[in-house]
Amino acid sequence: MRKIFVAVIFLWTSFVCFGQDSYRPSVAYVYPAGAQVGSTVRVIFGGIRLDNAEEVIVSGGGVSAKIIEYIKPLRQGEVAKTRLNLEKKFVEDNPEVKEKIKELGLEGQRYLRHETMKLPENKKIMADADKSYYLRLVSTDALAETLEVELQVSPNADLGERQILVRTTTGLSKPKKFIISDMPEVAKPSLRKTAIERSNSPIYKYGAYSMASKKHVAQPFPEIEIKPPVIANGQITEGAVDVYKFNATKGETFHLSVEAQKLIPYISDAVPGWFQTVIRVFDCDGKEVAYNDDFHFFPDSRLSFTAKKDGFYKVEIHDAIYRSREDFVYRLIVSKSPLHDVVANFIMPEKPENSLLFENGIISKKGQQNAYELVLKKNQRVIAEVFARRQNSPLDSFLYITDPSGKRIKRNDDYYDETSGLTTHHADSRIDFVPKENGKYTFYVSDTIGNASLNHSYVFNVREPSIDFKIFSYNSTASVRRSGILSFKLKVFRDYGKKYPITLSANLPDGWELLNPTINSKDTEHELLIKPNDNFATVPISIFASVKTKDKIIKREVIPADYLMQAFYYRHFVPANSFFCAVSNNIKNFRAQKHMKFLFPSNDYIAYVPLENSLRLPIAITPKHQYWQIVPTIKSDILEVGKVYWGKKLLYVEIKPKKNAKEKDSDFVHINLFYKAGSKLMEFDRTPPYRFVVCKKIDKKISQRTKIK
Predict the structure, then answer these.
(1) Which tens digits make up the pLDDT trace of 538-597?
(2) Most C-beta atoms within 10 A of its C-beta, which of 316, 416, 461, 589?
(3) CB 263 within 8 A of CB 177
(4) Cα separation, 499 vs 444, whole angstroms
C-alpha cells in the first residue's frame, strides 16, 4: 500500500519525559511514622530506588527535612564479585603466585583466597561487604534500601495526618502517611539500626555470611518502659512480640489504640493485605486482663481497661498470625483520655438535591427493622441507598422494598462501591428500580446478621437519578524534566450510566497549561496532560471537574489517589491529601532516550490520517543505529501503529486507521515507546500528545498547513 508522507509543524525542544512507576523511587514504609510538635526526629524510609535522593517533602508546612544517609545493601553476587576483584588485584600485584596456583591445581583457588585475605585491608573490605549483605538478609529486596532523614517539627505545626514523599533523580515517590501529634513519643530502634549493631558485635565473625544463622537473628527485644500519655512507635520484625510496661494505680482507666493499617492501608505482597495487629494487657501478676484483635470492622486494635491493683502492667503487640516484616510499622497510643467511638466518627453524607427521602437511623435492638414509606409514580426511577459502613458505622445493612400490596419486590445486601477505596467489606445496600404502578412503597432497613447497638447508625436516602460524578486519579504524583509533560491518569465514575462531557481545570502555577481539559462523554478514563514552565519546582496542585447542565454548573474536585494493590490481587483507589508535581533538570532517562529528542507539536497542529492509507509521522530526532530497538504502541479506538522508519535523522512512526474508523473520527493521544531488551519489551517513554483526524485523503491545502518549520 502506498504510504503518504506528511510534514508537520513542530517546535523543537529537549526531552519530553514520561517516566514509568517501575523506575520511580518506591517507599514501602516510613519509621517512625510520626513525631511530636516541636521535636527533631530521625526517620527511616525503606524501599527501592532511593539512591540520588534530592528532596524530602512533607505536606502542610511546619516540617523541614534534611537527608542524612542512604544505604543500599550488597546482593550476594556483589559480595562474590568483591572477593573476586580483590583476588584479581592480588594476582596483578603479586605475579609470582601464578606458578604456585598452577602447581596446586584444584587447591589453587583456596590458596589464592587464603593469601588474599592475609592482607588486613582486604579482610576489612570483605567483612564490610559481608555486613552489608547481612542487612539485605534481614530484609527483602523490595524493602532493602534505606534513606535516613532528619525532620524538624515546628512547635506551631498543625496537628494531624500529613503526606511525606521523596524526590530522587528519577522522580517522586508515592506518598506515605506521617502523623504530627501533641503527645510525647518514643520509638523502638529500627531493625536496620539493630542489625548494624548486631553485625558489629563480638559474636559476629567474618565468613560465609555468618550472621544468616537464626540464632543471631531472632533475639528477643527487651521490654520498653513508657509513661502514659505516650505514643510508642515500633516495627514488628523477625517474628517478634513487642512488650511495653507502665506503672498503674488501682482504679485508673487506660485507653489503648493502634495505628497500623491506618498508616499503610494496603500491602501488595502480604495476605490479608495489611499488618493485622493484636494487643494484650497483663497485670503485675502476669494475668491477661484485656485483649483486642479487630475493633468492629477496623483491623487496627483498640481497647480500654481499669487497673484492679497497683503495679506495672505490660502491653504486648504482635501480628495476629505472628508474621513480621519491616513495613509492619505501628503507633501504639496509651492514654487516660477516652477513645472516640465509631459513632463519634460517623461522617454524614451530603444530602443530594434530588432526594425524595433523607433520614438518619439507628439499629439499636437485635432483629430491629426500620420502615420508610414513600409514594411513587409508575416508571418513576429511584435509587435507594444506605450509607453506613462507608461512614464508619459497624452496621452491615440489608435493604428490601415492598409494593403497595405488601409484596417484596427488590432486595439487596452488599453493593460494591469502587469509589470507597479504604473499604474492603462493602456492606452498604443499594437498589436501583422502576415502580410498575402508582402507590405507596415501603423500604425496610436492618442489619444482615441481626447485630445492633447505639453505634449501628446510618443514613437512608431515596433519590431520583441526576447528573453527578466522581473522578479519582491512578497516581497522585508526577515528575518530568524541564520542557516535559506531566501526566495524571484519571478514572471517571458517572452516576446511573449517563454520558456527558466533563471539563477539567486546575490551580496551576503561572506559565503552566492543561493540554487536554475535556473528557469525552463516552470515556471512563482520561490521561490529563499538563505542560509546566521551565522553572524547577516541586509543587502541590488541585484539579477540578465541572459539567454544565441546562440550569447550573456542577463542580467537583478531582480526588488525588493512588491505585494500590492489596494481597497480590485486589486494587483500590486510596485517597491522598494532594497532587504533587516535580519539575527538575536531573530527572534521569533510559539509555534509549540518551540520544533521542522528541519533536513537539504546536498547539494548533492536527495530524491527518488518510482513511485508506497510512501516515508516516515524524516524532523524534535519533541516530540511525537506535531506531530498530524501538517498538511503538498507541491506545486508541480508531488508530493503530505500524512500522518504525528512519530517515534524515528523523524517527517516523506509521499511523493507520482501524477497520472501524470513519471519516472525521478524531482522537487526542500520545504514542507509547517500548525498548527491546533481549526478548523483553520495556516501556521507556511517551511522545507528546497528538490530535489525529481521519480523512478520506490529504489534499494540497492540508499538506501546505503541515510543513516542518
Answers:
(1) 999 999 999 998 889 999 999 999 999 999 999 999 999 999 999 876 655 444 455 567
(2) 461
(3) yes
(4) 32
Helix and strand numbers (H, E) in the chain are 7, 52
pTM, 2 dp: 0.83
The C-alpha cell of 616 is what? 508516516
Residue 198, pLDDT score: 80
Q: Are the beta carbons of 398 and 448 closer than 8 angstroms?
A: yes
Q: Domains in the chain, ordered, with CATH? A: 4-17+589-705 (2.60.40), 220-345 (2.60.120.380), 354-463 (2.60.120.380), 469-584 (2.60.40.10)
Q: Which helix (H) or strand (E) holds 93?
A: helix 76-93
Nearest partner of 216 among 228, 207, 224, 227, judged by Cα: 207
Alpha-carbon span 25 to 6, nearest angstrom: 40
Partnered with residue 30 across adjacent β-strands are 45
Dig out the grid coordinates for 278 from the structure.
493484636
Which residue has cell 524530602?
Answer: 56
Helix (H, G, I), strand (E, B) or coil at 593: helix
Residues 6+ apart with CB under 8 A from 534: 482, 483, 583
The mean pLDDT value for 152-164 works out to 96
Measured between alpha carbons, how far is 166 from 537 in angstroms, rounded to an integer?
A: 14
Structural contact between residues 72 and 147, judged by C-beta atoms closer than 8 angstroms: no
The region, left, alpha or beta by phi > 0 then psi within -120 to 50, assigned to residue 392 is: left
Cell 523511587 sits at which residue? 25
For residue 189, whether the previous peptide bond is cis, meaning omega lies within 30 degrees of 0, is: no
Alpha carbon dihedral 503, 507, 512, 514, in 10-degree steps, equals: -10
* Cα 44 to Cα 134, 197, 327, distances in angstroms: 18, 16, 11
| CA 184 – CA 246 distance, rounded (Å) | 14
Cα–Cα distance between 290 and 418 in angstroms, integer? 36
CA 697 to each of CA 4, 609, 652, 661: distance values in angstroms, whole numbers, following the listed order = 9, 8, 20, 14
Q: Which DSSP state fits 142? A: G
